[in-house]
Write a structure and sequence with these properties.
This protein has 443 residues and is α+β, with helices and mostly antiparallel strands. Helices cover 37% and strands 27% of the residues.
Length: 443
């Protein structure tokens, strides 16, 4: 596969999407091919049937390959699911020598210390995201590198998930004949695709309503502050319609998409949809008012759970207020009048997030749908990873050259520039490596 290409693989509860993209001359994302298949082996974001998931992945990949004439080898995958949870944690290290400046190694040491936290059985830390640092009691430091100090402490946002679930995803990818290039938390991928930097600075809550789960990511001052996965999504709404109207799932899904609304007030009592009966039975008549009432009840429940998480983060405190409000994305965000309902329940400004900010101008209209926000975010993440690797390789070459001429340079070793800046080595890269090792050993 070419170097400047990346493939995002979004393994969802209702659909699996493979998306191939590259950066064009203007730095925008050009989508070269997209493949989509029905997801059969995934429940609430967690793989529960390996064989079916492998088939669905292969189908999506083949479709994307056919659309683009490119052979897919490496993929960047998103993980979500009801097993993901997050917590806040503070930790500190005492430096051996406060006369030297704080560097990457000190921060690595501090982050590795967080990784030793004792988790519940079967859980593993996926992400350790530093919030802000303190050096010798001086608070609210965003970047401590280059400062002097003896005690370095930080608040961390720690994301935790089930090891077995993550390994199962890795297993499916390997069995589908693909290489795992990277893993990203899905709310992070979606946020890269639909949020602007200004929103992340001002404070914003991204709600990604998928088929099986609703993911939440809260940003403030450009840093991710809170993540949560709520085990409800669009499928539960379909299930409710199926039960409430006594119809089959396929009809319930179509009803939701074509006539569904989250706001019952706007339907008149005499608006009726007729649904063909099964095998010669009488057709069913359903009033749109009843349909919206069923949808409304469930959507309110989902939004209230998400809002509880937003309050949990501390949105009601003046210092933590989310000025950017809420951004809705994912397939579930296309439900009619959802934006108005969310504004009504939360009292926060709301908009629908389309992943078109990073896409090239001539992109197909389908791709700019909120449905593909996560896939676009994963492609962006894959491209970022490649850029990081290039820079790291260049830096390694520079360091090797410097070692060759080391006799002449005794004092010049000091600058921090020769080391990769902090954000480069993400913990998901390390997790990906660990997962690759585990899968190789399991063979």
């Amino acid at each position: 596969m070419e170097h400047n290409l990346a493939v995002g693989l979004d393994i969802g509860t209702t659909k699996i999407v493979a998306m191939i993209g590259r950066k064009n001359d203007y730095g925008k994302l050009e989508i070269l091919g997209i493949g989509k298949s029905k997801s059969l082996g995934v429940h609430r974001g967690v793989v529960n049937n390996i064989t079916q998931t492998i088939q669905s992945i292969q189908q999506a990949v083949q479709e994307a390959e056919a659309a683009s004439d490119i052979k897919i080898e490496d993929v960047t995958v998103g993980i979500a699911g009801q097993h993901i949870r997050s917590l806040q944690h503070s930790d500190y290290i005492t430096r051996a020598n406060s006369e030297t400046v704080i560097d990457d190694e000190d921060i690595d040491l501090l982050i590795n210390q967080v990784h030793k936290l004792v988790m519940l059985p079967g859980e593993e830390i996926i992400h350790v995201l530093p919030q802000e640092y303190k050096v010798d009691g001086q608070a609210e430091i965003k970047e401590p590198i280059g400062m002097y100090g003896g005690r370095l402490e930080a608040n961390f946002h720690v994301v935790v998930g089930q090891v077995s679930s993550i390994r199962n995803v890795g297993r499916c990818i390997k069995s589908a004949g693909l290489n795992l290039e990277g893993i990203t938390l899905e709310p992070l991928a979606s946020s890269n695709a639909v949020l602007s930097q200004e929103e992340k600075e001002a404070g914003v809550a991204l709600i990604d309503i998928g088929g099986g789960t609703t993911d939440l990511a809260i940003f403030r001052d450009g840093i991710i502050r809170h993540t949560a996965v709520i085990p409800f999504g669009g499928n539960v709404i379909t299930e409710d319609i199926k039960e409430g109207c006594s119809i089959i799932e396929k009809q319930a899904e179509l009803l939701k998409i074509k006539f569904g609304s989250a706001w019952p007030g706007e339907n008149k009592d005499n608006e009726i949809v007729s649904i063909p009966g099964l095998r010669g039975r009488e057709p069913k008549e359903i009033t749109l008012k009843n349909l919206s009432k069923i949808i409304h009840a469930r959507v309110v429940e989902i939004i209230e759970q998400v809002y509880a998480e937003i309050k949990n983060y501390g949105h009601e405190e003046q210092k933590k207020k989310l000025i950017g409000g809420i951004v809705l994305t994912g397939g579930g965000s296309q439900l009619k009048h959802l934006k108005q309902l969310v504004e009504y329940i939360t009292g926060m400004d709301t908009r629908i997030g389309y992943p078109n900010e990073h896409l090239a101008g001539d992109s197909d209209e389908d791709i700019t749908s909120p449905l593909y926000a996560t896939a676009v975010g994963l492609v962006l993440d894959g491209l970022k990873r490649q850029e990081r690797r290039k820079i790291e390789q260049q830096e390694e070459e520079i360091i090797l050259e410097e070692e060759v001429v080391e006799e002449t340079t005794t004092e010049v070793e000091e600058p921090v520039e020769t080391k990769p800046p902090k954000p480069r080595r993400t913990f998901l890269d390390k997790l990906t490596d660990r997962l690759k090792d585990f899968l190789d050993d399991a063979e």
